[in-house]
Design goal:
The chain has 740 residues and is an alpha+beta fold. It has three domains: 14-119 and 189-273 and 580-740, Thrombin, subunit H (Beta Barrel), CATH 2.40.10.120; 277-387 and 551-570; 392-546, no CATH class. It has 27 helices and 21 strands. Helix 16 (428-454) runs antiparallel to helix 20. The longest helix is centred in the middle third of the chain and has 32 residues, at 277-308. The structure holds arginine.
Length: 740
């Protein structure tokens, strides 16, 4: 027995440490590749990332800049999350066509719905340009000068990369200003909605289950990329055709097992893994609670109006979801930063850093002041972080009228200036040209109004304005009140309801009729006197003012740049990864369960049975559509059940993802699609600041549940038919590349 034990121990030690933590740049997989192979990967690095031949990266898109999607057919079919397509599904919905409630399916391409403003972006290539950027910098520069120089050099590099082609490019900063990479993209703008399950599938469990495991949600929707007949990006046109992609992911329906290799490629938005203990403390005590306080009120008001009226429910569905998602996020983050002892973990790192720095004179010269800089800077930000949150949450993005007023006012100001110039001009030709341009501005503002008022309820916004301004006034010390707030309180004797009543009664911005009437006959004095536009300008100034502390920003930026560089120097053998910044990353790990807390163990997959266990048709979050219930009760699972006859709905794996990764493909060892990532788990809500290897999990929809819904529930066989379905289980060692 003892022998066996020691044998096992040796064996266990021989396994390489599994680096499931980390969002790696696809270009730089070198240091991870052996590790990935040891854990099952069967692809070559070139099959993952290659600039000359089709590779996995060519099947991954940034979806609108805020989510990720994957191409799953040779006709440009995109799979992403339901919550990523939610805004589009919502915008096509009305009380007559309620796609949110009923779902939407295009049974032929002519039924697919265009989405103005939506784009997807393919990564053409990336390149390390660190040396070129660093050559243009020197140690005497202030952080501000540095930032300006980086922006200049970045612009030059990007301009070179896009000369003579139709690509977009940018240079982005990594490791807090220590490394720089160029990204070249191809962007497509004709993206059509193809399919979405009802919210009772795509958002099953609602806010209650959001950010939690176990999950029973079919969080997916489908779109399609269109291009012109030559395969080039083009604005929407009836003549456009589905894009033939360089690569699409085959779909493997044989399922996942505990311990299986998985990788996720996508566009994680932002993480703060280098945050210091000071930053953690500020987050726990000030930032998170402030966001939650304001959003509590926003949600309460929206909910009241949505429950009272069906049209408002549809109008505000996407707005509500956006607010509530990160409302719950910050509740969880605050809680878990504490229960996972992240402050202590960060302090331990800083202690080591300090010992390392003090052991050597040259290190002292370079890094000796870093920790003190953090202490000083955070002492300052502590004083203003709460008012900064309020200026954003209750101010510029609080009353909808504020942001709308700001944008409208700015555009129209430019309009009136141009109009003045036109009138002063003597040249007839100039006059006509400028007149055309002025007409175009008016048309654009009319279209903007159509869009804004389509999803706008002025009574709701009036109550929101009164409530948020009052909260802002009461929660933030007087000395930190922005001018606009003080002025309103003074003129209305602290009665914010009276202010809101007067604002909504007088502003032409508050109703579609008066807004359109203004555009028929724009008069600048009317605009200058408008209370809605004044609120927008005032809140914008408040927002800029609350977040304007150049000296502290400089100090923090410099401290983080040095601290990050120092940590990497201190641990030369550790493979550090850069924080997420909406650039393409790859993370890998294995499928596996976890212990949530004392005596609570969560297994790695839930099944359709659990959908019925959670069912409560009196609770809008847990309604189960009758057809789905019947399919489950009769176990009519088609080809999508597992060997036990169950229909797995989701699964968890220990890959490292964050917001922005939503919709990312979960890919098996052979490069086939097995799921779609959509969330993280509650116990690791602190994960954007500190990865928790034992408990942090990615939550993904099992591709079999997705196909079951498309096929058995929606009967959209047309979509199944265009996919490349793999029905053979993954065999290790069998080199397969049907698609590459
Ligand atoms: N928490 C998920 C994310 O941010 C979104 C899940 C959407 N579902 C929901 N019930 N709101 O990626």
């Amino acid at each position: 027995m003892k022998k066996l034990l020691s044998f096992l121990l040796v064996f266990a030690l021989a396994l390489p440490a599994f680096a499931n933590e980390g969002m790696w740049l696809p270009l730089l997989l070198g240091r991870n590749y052996e590790d990935m192979k040891a854990h099952g990967l069967q692809l070559s690095p070139e099959q993952i990332y290659d600039v000359n031949n089709g590779s996995l990266k060519d099947a991954i898109v940034s979806f609108g800049g805020f989510c990720t999607g994957e191409i799953i057919s040779n006709q440009g079919l995109i799979l992403t999350n339901h919550h990523c397509g939610y805004g589009q599904i919502q915008s096509h919905s009305s009380t007559e066509h309620d796609y949110l409630t009923d779902g939407f399916w295009a049974y032929e391409k002519s039924q697919e719905l265009p989405n103005e403003g939506l784009f997807v972006r393919f990564l053409v290539r990336m390149e390390d340009v660190t040396n070129r950027v660093l050559d243009g910098l020197n140690d005497d520069m202030t952080e501000d000068e540095r930032a300006k120089a980086i922006a200049e050099i970045g612009k030059t590099i990007a301009a070179e990369a896009t000369e003579g082609n139709h690509y977009d490019a940018n240079v982005q900063t990594f490791f807090h200003g220590n490394e720089f990479y160029l990204f070249v993209y191809e962007t497509f703008n004709d993206i059509r909605l193809v399919g979405a399950p009802p919210s009772s599938v795509g958002k099953y469990g609602g806010d209650t289950d959001n950010w939690m495991w176990p999950r029973h949600t079919g969080d997916f929707s489908m779109f399609r990329v269109y291009a012109d007949k030559d395969g080039m990006p083009a604005e929407y046109s009836e003549n456009n055709v589905p894009l033939t992609p360089k690569h699409h992911l085959p779909v493997n329906v044989t399922g996942v097992k505990d311990g299986d290799f998985t990788m996720v490629m996508g566009y994680p938005g932002s993480t703060d893994r280098y945050l210091t203990s000071w930053g953690v403390k500020e987050q726990i005590e000030l930032y998170g609670p402030a966001v939650v306080r304001v959003r509590d009120l926003k949600l309460e008001i929206m909910k009241k109006y949505m429950e009272a009226d069906a049209a408002t429910r549809i109008q505000y569905a996407s707005k509500y979801a956006r607010v509530s998602n990160y409302w719950k996020y910050y509740i969880g983050q605050t809680e878990q930063l504490q229960s996972n002892h992240v402050f202590d973990k960060k302090q331990a790192i800083e202690k080591k850093f300090s010992t390392w720095v003090n052991a050597d004179e040259s290190r002292k010269a370079k890094y000796g002041e870093v920790l003190e800089m953090f202490a000083d800077a955070y002492a300052e930000t502590n004083k203003s972080v709460t008012s900064g949150v309020y200026a954003r949450e209750a101010g510029i993005t609080g009353p909808e009228l504020a942001l709308q007023g700001l944008r409208f006012g700015r555009t129209m100001k430019a309009y009136f200036q141009a109009k003045g110039m036109m009138e002063a001009s003597e040249d007839e030709e100039t006059k006509t040209q400028m007149g055309d341009r002025l007409d175009a501005i008016i048309d654009a503002m009319k279209a903007n109004g159509e869009e804004f008022f389509k999803d706008y309820n002025p009574s709701l916004d009036r109550e929101m304005t009164a409530g948020l301004l009052e909260l802002y006034y009461n929660d933030i010390p007087k000395a930190q009140h922005p001018e606009v707030l003080t002025a309103i309180a003074d003129s209305f004797d602290g009665d914010f309801k009276a202010y809101a009543d007067s604002l909504f009664a007088s502003s032409f911005m508050a109703s579609k009729e008066s807004y359109m009437a203004f555009l028929e006959n724009p008069v600048d004095s009317v605009m200058d006197a408008d209370m809605g536009i004044a609120l927008g300008e005032g809140m914008y100034a408040a927002y800029m003012g609350a977040n304007d502390n150049a000296e502290v920003d400089d100090k923090l930026e410099k401290a983080y740049r040095l601290f990050t560089a120092g940590l990497r120097e201190m641990n030369p053998n550790k493979n550090y990864y850069p924080d997420a910044n909406s650039t393409m990353r790859l993370t890998y790990g294995t499928v596996g369960d976890y212990d949530a807390r004392d005596a609570v163990h969560y297994s790695h997959y839930p099944t359709s049975e659990g959908i019925l266990e959670k069912k409560d048709n009196d609770d809008p979050e847990f309604v189960v559509p009758a057809k789905l219930e019947t399919l489950i009760k009769t176990q009519d699972y088609g080809n999508y059940a597992n060997e036990e006859g169950e229909l797995p709905v989701c699964f968890i794996h220990n890959t490292d993802i964050t917001g922005g990764n939503s919709g990312s493909p979960v890919i098996n060892a052979r490069g086939e699609l097995i799921g779609t990532a959509f969330d993280g788990n509650w116990e690791a809500m602190s994960g954007d600041i500190n990865f928790e290897p034992e408990i942090q999990r990615t939550i993904s929809v099992d591709i079999r549940y997705t196909l079951f819904i498309i096929d058995k529930y929606a009967g959209a066989q047309n979509l199944i038919d265009e996919m490349t379905i793999v029905t053979k289980p993954v065999k290790r060692g069998s080199w397969f590349s049907r698609i590459f």
